[in-house]
Amino acid sequence: MTLLHAKELRLTFGSRTVFDALTLTIEEGERVGLVGVNGSGKSSLMRILARQSEPDRGEVQLRRGASVTYLPQEPSFAAGATVASELSAARAPLKEAIEAHAALSGRLATAGEAEHERILAELAALSDRIEHLGGWDTAHEAKRLLDRLGVKDWDRPVAELSGGLKKRVAIARALLHRPDLLLLDEPTNHLDADTTDWLEEELDRLSGALLLVTHDRYFLDDLVDRIVEIDPGAGVTSWPGNYEAYLEQKLVAEEQASLAEHKRQRWIAQEVAWLRRGVEARRTKSKARIQRARKLLAEKGFRRPEAARLELAAAPRLSQKVIEAERVSKRFGEREVIRDASFILQRGERVGIVGPNGAGKTTFLRLLLGELPPDAGKVEVGARTKVAYYDQQRLALDPEATVYEAALPGGAGAGSAGSAHGEAWVELSGRRVALRDYLDDLLFPPAMQRMQVKALSGGERNRLLLAKLFLAGANVLVLDEPTNDLDLVTLNVLERLLLGFDGSVLLVTHDRYFLDKVATSILDLEGDGRVVRYPGNYETYRTLKEQQLEAQRAERAERAERAEAGPARPAGAPGAAPRAPEPEASRKRRFGFKEQRELEGMEAAILAAETRKAEVERALSDPATYQKDPLSVPRLQDELLALGAEVDRLYARWQELEALRG
To answer: What is d(CA 24, CA 226) in angstroms, rounded to the nearest whole number?
Structure first.
């Protein structure tokens, strides 16, 4: 059954048409991913569907009685709101349904026979609604969501919360509504990877329909069953399946459209040549052919979607030492954020930094960059290290400056520095390019270059800041949440740029897919001051960390079992339990010649396994591996996991043999 139908929507901003003749239908329970380049109108469409703004033309029809909840990128709250009041408002429909159920139940005992059946039917309907809205315990569900989202202070004013915590309260509020249609605009921004995993599971359990805008490709792959793509200045194209299926279908469609366009261009060339010969137009056939030729010339042909062409200015070659931190610690009041952390960034490494919100990822970056002094330890930066730092607050952009001014090498107000006759120039890959042309390649045409930064969408501001940083000629890129708000096409461009970058990269992001594609190692800030480094990409890190946690759980269980059993008493001592007969298999297990030979060869076996493991780790941390033989990367990652397990097995066997010999 159709839940929502948007018909012939048109939206313009000044002379710019955002979309036109846009028609979209969402069925009950459907999961839809909304994609499109930055500035194509994804957030604007979401606001129109949520009835928070109006289109210039067209209408939105919602099924009678259906409810819609909208979570924008930057959620808003009522003045003076607390966490509890916001969630109570979200629970209001559930509370009303429970109160109505209680009132009806009270009338049931005194109801006559005729009214009795009607009340029972109403109670059944109210019970279904209560279950749909989350169940009978209204407070328990709210507290469960807040605890899992890391929001501890139930009565705290929302105005005192950080941007990340505000987003979490808004997520809890949206989930508590249990609407028929949930509209989510970049819900994973400001969420750490573990919370993103949890949110994915929570959304998967919802019974209502979902329309989702996100740059998290794993989110799209796992949650949606249809992709809707906004065509800039036009309508939408619908693709069945998840994001991976969409990419495959779109590639085939573009190849077919490209072939059709090639045929059309050949036909146009033939018709133009025919027209130039000055064929007599008096005959009916000639007139019809002329009309067809003119119509063909007027048609809009196929053009491949444009992608921002991000480029890097030439940078000096790094010295042997890039950035090194030795036993660094940092405390804010009573809270120890970083404790005794050592870290070496080598040439060509791309290190992903992960951890829960508040664990100190940005603090650690600022320690490495010298923006914060450590309380203990030291940080050394190589003599030839030149850093470009992307801060997630985008403080390097003046909102009042024009796009062109903001991109100038010296920033807004730099005038014509580095320019000739008032035109600014930039150096890219050994060639001199006009700044206006560079911005045009980044999908900022001349009209947009005159716009103020504050008029850009979040993704467009993000793209502008990245472009500005890449002009700095840096050999170390420090990127703090660069993927927020970027469209999927630009994310792919950024991935390729970082994979081909000769320098080093420090990258804070919650985008799991991005880390899988880009990172050569992962630095995990665990939240208690500990900083642990893992080889490989994000998937390898998750596997290795899970193995580590499993081993820790097993060790704790063993310690608890020993503590419960109490101290062992010597056999035969008063109160000692009688020694059980030794099992036959155990009696036969003696240290013989075969075990002696195995033990003698164990050191060499461990050394060989650890040597190969180190070779694989070096290959995975070498950018050349990803450039020259990308198909070998999954095999190397699998081999690294297998080698880690083999080294653990060999050490365990070595200890077993030593125990047998003893």
So the answer is: 12
402 DSSP 8-state letter? B
CA distances from 581 to 127, 408, 585, 590, 620 (A): 61, 84, 12, 16, 52
- In order of 43, 347, 457, 487, 573, the CA distances from 230 in angstroms are 11, 41, 16, 12, 81
DSSP 160: G
Residue 395 shares a structural domain with residue 281: no
Question: In the structure, what pLDDT confidence band is assigned to residue 584 with cuts at 50, 70 and 90?
Answer: very low
Residue 546 domain-assigned (yes or no): no
Residue 294 shares a structural domain with residue 329: no
What does the radius of gyration of the chain's CA atoms come to, in whole angstroms? 32
Distance of alpha carbon 443 from alpha carbon 36, whole angstroms: 14
What CA–CA distance (Å, rounded) separates 133 from 208? 11
**183-211 per-position pLDDT tens digit:** 999 998 878 788 888 889 889 888 889 99
Residue 510 sits at the vertex; the CA angle it makes with 409 and 26, to the nearest 5 degrees, is 105
In a domain, residue 315? The reply is: no
* Span of 56-70, 113-127, 547-561, 576-590 with lowest mean pLDDT: 576-590
Q: Are residues 200 and 234 in the same domain?
A: yes
55 and 200 in a single domain? The answer is yes
> Is residue 67 domain-resident?
yes
How far from 321 is each of 347, 374, 570, 583, CA to CA, in Å? 8, 20, 58, 59
Are 149 and 198 members of one domain? yes
Give the model's pLDDT for residue 299: 67
| pLDDT tens-digit readout, 11-40 | 988 778 889 999 999 999 999 999 988 778
Per-residue pLDDT, 416? 37
**CATH number reported for the structural domain that contains residue 530 in this entry:** 3.40.50.300
Structure tokens at 189: 């921004």
Mean pLDDT (the chain, rounded)? 79
* Whole-structure pTM value: 0.66
Strand partners, 230: 236
Contact 361, 508 (CB under 8 A): yes
Domain presence at residue 151: yes
Domain assignment of residue 419, given as a range: 323-485+502-538
Tokens of 310: 């991000």
- Angle, to 10 degrees, between the axis of helix 632-661 and the axis of helix 593-600? 130
Average pLDDT over residues 546-558: 81
As for how many domains the chain has, the answer is: 4
Let me know whether 255 and 236 are in one domain.
Answer: no
Parallel, antiparallel, or unpaired for β 209-213 and 31-35? Answer: parallel
How far is residue 198's CA from residue 500's CA, in Å, rounded to a whole number?
33
* 3 band by pLDDT with thresholds 50, 70 and 90: very high
CA dihedral sign of residues 99, 103, 104, 109: positive
Chain-centroid distance of CA 471 in Å reads 26
Q: Do residues 352 and 274 both lie within one domain? A: no
